[in-house]
What we know:
The structure holds two protein chains of two kinds.
Chain A: H1 6-27, H2 29-33, E1 36-44, H3 50-54, H4 63-70, E2 75-79, E3 82-98, E4 102-118, E5 124-131, H5 148-157
Chain B: H1 2-15, E1 19-28, H2 34-38, H3 47-54, E2 59-63, E3 72-78, E4 80-93, E5 96-103, E6 110-116, E7 122-129, H4 130-133, H5 142-145
Antiparallel strand pairs in B: 1-4, 2-3, 3-6, 4-5, 6-7
Amino acid sequence: MKIGGPRLVAAATGYGRARMLKLRSLVFLPVLLAASCVFSRQDVNEPIEIAVVRSFEPGKTTAREVVERLGAPTEVVQLGRRTAYRYDCSTEKSTVLFLLVINFANQDSRSDRVWVFFDEKDVLTHCGTWFGTHRTQYALPWEDVHEKSDNDARDAERAGAVR
Amino acid sequence: MKGLLGSLAAWPLLLAGCVTGKYTHVSVNEPLLPEHMAALSPGTDTLGTCLDRLGAPNRVFEYRVGPDRTAGMALLWVWRDESGWGIEVSGAVKDVSGSVSYDQLNKELPGCVLWFSPELVLEGWRMGRIGELLRGRIRPSPADQG
Lengths: 163, 146
């Protein structure tokens, strides 16, 4: 005697599948429960004061005055008879999302850089600047945090960053 | 059912952090854009105009030193904006622990170099991998000559 028919078999199979899906969901539940985030920030060197850098005058300011105002440079480069001093600092913001079996990490690093060039008499000839540490952001790896609007908004909050 | 059991069997390894997949994005410094570079004019632009347009470089090097110690200079910009998948496997065998990782971020960094004559006029520029751009840059030192 045949018990049930094609309909009953189909119903039983459907029930089994649903149960299996539920079990599988439970297996991956720890991924959600054990998820964690880490935010870290690393700053290298003291921030550079923009107003001080903008006060330098090529043809007038001397190497001695630059060192008196900014302190010791990170690097001194000999360029024949000329010299160049590098001042810099950087900020790095890192975000990591741990999901046990898979991690998502983002590292965003920007720097402030000032190069001052002197002639053989140690008088300033050129000054090159870039200020970017204020643009760093915590983000997940699929986010673009350096669109023009992002950068413009952050530049507006730091006086003198962009000439 | 076999798949379910397989998933459960993998948990001890995964929970112990022995095997992890990762997706990483690294962004370091702003890149110099091609349109910035296209606006440069070798023979006309000077150190001053280039610094005004491009901002401060990451590094400055001595270039073409003459017998009278006059020299030009080379300015280097370097940046990084990469993302990729990777996998990390770690464990311990007989008190020796170790970890092996592989990812797609180990590529050479892109950069740009501008060369200036001793008169500080732009001679030329090149974008590429910094390993290629700076090849043979360092002049021999007494220590190297041994």
